[in-house]
Design a protein that fits this description.
single chain; 475 residues; four-stranded mixed β-sheet
Length: 475
């Protein structure tokens, strides 16, 4: 039986998400890993984050889990938890050697590899049945040094740019920004002439972390190279930090140094931001709360740097881990495979916030709980059709606003780009080294000094994890 435990504030709980109707929910036939046995009557305890669309949890995930349990003779319990509590709850359960059988993270939990099961058998079976996993999902769940999948990923979330079209039209760039420099040229003009700032955080929170990564990648730099050597301190990173100092001066205000993960959403919805880097969640929130603002929100792919490169980090990536203490691991693996088979419903019930990790997975037959999409046979077909013609658009809203997200695979990448999301990258992310580096530059520290400080901290983290055999590279 599913239950909800919503303690603390998640990054999306400020949103008053409206419903999309109570629709029928189908469960695909059970998928069995060859050679595995699944005893009826087992329990399965699942811990997941509190999704930004509350009805996704209440009307789909919890209902799906309950029906899946009834179909497979398993007593399923689902608990929901605030984003900020996931690391501490995971650590506590692993330390105690007891707790949930499946734990969902929304970032790569690579630091927990020694304490969780290798899910390579699940990935192998999933790829046999559903086609190849998206590369950014593989790099966010696989450690090439140990050759282990420390997690399994059924889906992820796209992170485009979100801009107010009317503001950019007045500034002479109605199609919105294309390059990072456009944020200074036109975003600065909007701030000067219209009094509305840009909304890119420079604080210790998730979106600031994502923005800093997208910026340095688009400036042709990174924390590590493909072989997991630290390469952060180079002229291109310094160039990116210098850019951020200019952007802050021309187009932002001091509040960005103290922003939380909901601040950019709130600023856009309140009409106080001309551009933010975020998922479509702020737009969905505006549709319910301030429709006129929602109708003015449009989207851009990753902004291009000075040499034409453009990358954004995936916004959320659904990593499920199975702790070694679990006595129901096989049942948990089966649940994950069946979840992939039903991810069309996860996409729809999340109002397109969720995208599939397996784009070539076939759509099961029967009532899927959403209007039929002509000619759709695979998850990719639905993904592209819905982004071409948004089923959740407001009456009178412009058509095709989500089209820039159709090819997000081309400009979205993983946290450790161009390498894997290894434990060292995870710790650099968790300790906010990159947004601190950007903030120091924006506050007046020389870019060279800010980058050098970040390099010292980063190299120490990489050296620590290298000694444990979980990270490659030599420097």
């Amino acid at each position: 039986m599913a239950k909800s435990d919503r303690k603390g504030m998640t990054r999306r709980e400020f949103v008053k998400a409206a419903g999309i109707g109570t629709l029928a929910m189908g469960v695909a036939p059970a998928i069995i890993i060859p050679g595995r046995s699944y005893a009826a009557g087992k329990e399965l305890k699942i811990l997941v984050w509190s999704h930004f669309v509350p009805k996704f949890d209440k009307e789909w995930y919890d209902s799906y889990a309950k029906k899946w349990g009834e179909k497979n003779g398993v007593n399923v319990t689902v608990d929901h938890i605030g984003l900020a509590e996931i690391p501490s709850r995971t650590a506590a359960e692993i330390s105690a050697g007891a707790g949930h059988d499946l734990i969902e993270w929304i970032a790569p939990p690579s630091t927990y590899e020694p304490s969780v099961l290798d899910l390579g058998d699940v990935v192998k079976e999933a790829e046999k049945r559903f086609g190849k996993m998206h590369p950014l999902c593989r790099r966010s769940s696989y450690n090439p040094n140990t050759k282990k999948f420390y997690s399994f990923i059924p889906g992820w979330t796209i992170d485009p740019g979100c801009y107010r079209k009317s503001l950019w039209e007045k500034a002479g760039k109605g199609e919105g920004p294309v390059t990072w420099e456009d944020l200074i040229t036109y975003g600065g003009k909007i701030k000067k002439d219209q009094g509305i700032q840009l909304g890119i955080g420079l604080s210790q929170e998730l979106d600031s972390n994502m923005a800093a990564r997208g910026l340095i990648w688009s400036y042709d730099s990174s924390i590590q190279d493909a072989k997991e050597n630290v390469v952060l301190n180079n002229p291109k990173t310094i160039e990116a930090v210098s850019y951020m100092a200019r952007l802050y001066k021309e187009a932002m205000v001091p509040e960005v140094f103290a922003w939380t993960a909901v601040s950019n959403n709130q600023a856009l919805i309140a009409g106080r931001a001309s551009f933010i880097l975020n998922s479509i969640s702020a737009y969905r929130s505006a549709q319910k709360e301030v429709p006129e603002i929602a109708k003015d929100i449009y989207f851009t792919p990753a902004l291009k740097g000075p040499r034409g490169t453009g990358w954004n980090c995936e916004h959320v990536i659904y990593n499920y881990i199975i702790p070694k203490y679990s006595k129901n691991a096989d049942t948990g693996k089966k649940f994950l495979l069946d979840l992939v088979a039903n991810y069309d419903q996860a996409m729809y019930k999340s109002e397109l916030y969720n995208s599939p990790a397996f784009f070539d997975a076939p759509i099961p037959s029967g009532d899927r709980g959403y209007p039929a999409v002509q000619g759709a046979k695979k998850m990719r077909d639905l993904h592209n059709a819905w982004f071409s013609d948004d089923p959740f658009a407001l009456p009178g809203e412009a058509k095709g606003k989500l089209v820039p997200l159709k090819d997000a695979e081309k400009w979205s990448t993983n946290m450790g780009h161009p390498g894997p999301a290894n434990p060292a990258e995870g710790e650099v992310f968790a300790t906010f080294i990159l947004p601190n580096m950007m903030a120091n530059g924006a506050r007046g520290m020389k870019a060279e000094e800010s980058v050098a400080q970040a390099e010292i901290l980063t190299k120490a983290i990489f050296a620590k994890w290298r000694k444990k055999g979980l990270v490659g590279g030599k420097t």
